[in-house]
Structure formats: C-alpha cells, structure tokens
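To the wet lab folks,

You asked to see what we're planning to order before we commit. Fair enough. Below is the target structure as tokens, and below that is the sequence we designed to fit it. If anything looks off to you, flag it before the synthesis order goes out.
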C-alpha cells in the first residue's frame, strides 16, 4: 500500500548548507512516518523561464540528485519539467492537485523564503496554512548563514565566478562537484610533466574561474 512520501521543496542548485538543513529535516520527518524522503526539483531553473534570462547552474540535474542522495539520505529525487503550465499554475492547485494529489505528499518541507505558483503568490506561510487545512504535515526551515552572509546559490555562483573555490566550498559544505565529458586539449600539461584532464561542461553549467 502506498503510504505517500515526505517531499522537500526547492531547486537545490549546488546542494549547499541551507539545502542540506532542509533535506535533513525532510529525512527526519520521513523516518518518523515510515515513508520515503523525496526532493522535488526541476529540469531547469524557474527564473530562466520567468525572466527569459539564462541562469548559470552550479551542477547538472544528475549531480544534484547524486549529492542529495549521498549527503542527505534522500531516497527519491523527483525531477519535474518546469514549463509554462507549471509556471502559471495557481498556488492552491500546485499544493492540492500536484503535491498532494499527484505526488502523494503526506508531509512537505520548504525554506522560509520559498515561493511557488503563479507569479510566486505561494509563500511558506500559505503552504503551512494549506497543509494544515488538508491534513498534511509541513515544516519551514530558517535561514542558514556563514560569517553573517546568507548561504545561497546566487552567492556561491559569484564566488565560483571569481575563482574563490575554497570559500565557495565552505558555503556548499562539500567540495564543488562538476561532471562532464573528458576531451583532448592542447596537451600543454603533458609537455610540462603534469598531464591534466580537460572536462567539457554541459550547456548551462557555470565554469569556475581559472585558478
């Protein structure tokens, strides 16, 4: 019998310290209920469709899923398509029809600043109220900071773009993860006695600054 699942809500780009706190809260709620812990993410950044401007990602959907499973004990990663229908879905329908009706959520977890639904009208507080009305559990996690700076994917992108890898790793809580195809380069490293691997990053993934 399907007992449903606990679902963590977010995009989870990079799976940083803030994401980890949220995902582990979901893992704990799932353990209490005896159901799988799932994370809902999308095939592309919602901001890309909303603004029409590409958002450079910290890692691929596959890397994201692997990090959530390996570091946070997530059982299922629900990779959903973010299209115009999803973008324009009323927030009430997103909660009742999509999360609960289609994905079988019995408990949801989100961050304090989570927005969803048409024009971002859904908020953490509205989600909490809707879940209470529908008999579904809900946890809202607070802000996570390091040295007075909010941990966010946006800040980590800035650090990586400027080559501050060690500081980016501090905000991530783990070494930055990238995967891609290894391709032939100019073999300059081999000529210097230190062969290197040239990784071709997938389209849309942020390339850290040269060290």
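Sequence we intend to order:
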């Amino acid at each position: 019998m399907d007992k449903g699942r606990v679902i963590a809500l977010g995009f989870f780009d990079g799976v940083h310290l803030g994401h980890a706190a949220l995902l582990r809260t979901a893992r704990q709620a799932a353990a209490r209920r005896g159901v799988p812990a799932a994370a809902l993410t999308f095939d592309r950044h919602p901001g890309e469709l909303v603004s029409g401007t590409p958002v450079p990602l910290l890692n691929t959907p596959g890397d994201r899923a692997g990090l959530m499973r390996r570091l946070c004990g997530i059982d299922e990663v629900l990779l959903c398509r973010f299209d115009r229908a999803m973008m324009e879905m009323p927030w009430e329908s997103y909660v009742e029809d999509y999360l609960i009706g289609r994905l079988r959520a019995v408990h949801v977890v989100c961050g304090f600043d989570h927005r969803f639904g048409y024009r971002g009208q859904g908020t953490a507080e509205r989600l909490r109220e809707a879940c209470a009305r529908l008999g579904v559990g809900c946890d809202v996690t607070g802000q996570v900071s390091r040295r007075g700076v909010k941990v966010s994917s946006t800040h980590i992108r800035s650090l990586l773009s400027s080559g501050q890898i060690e500081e980016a790793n501090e905000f991530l809580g783990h070494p930055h993860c990238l995967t891609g195809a290894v391709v032939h380069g100019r073999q300059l490293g081999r000529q210097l006695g230190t062969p290197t691997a040239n990784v071709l990053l997938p389209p849309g993934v942020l390339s850290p600054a040269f060290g």
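Structural context that might help your review: The mean pLDDT is 91. Residues 20 and 72 are 6 Å apart (CA to CA).

Thanks,
Computational group
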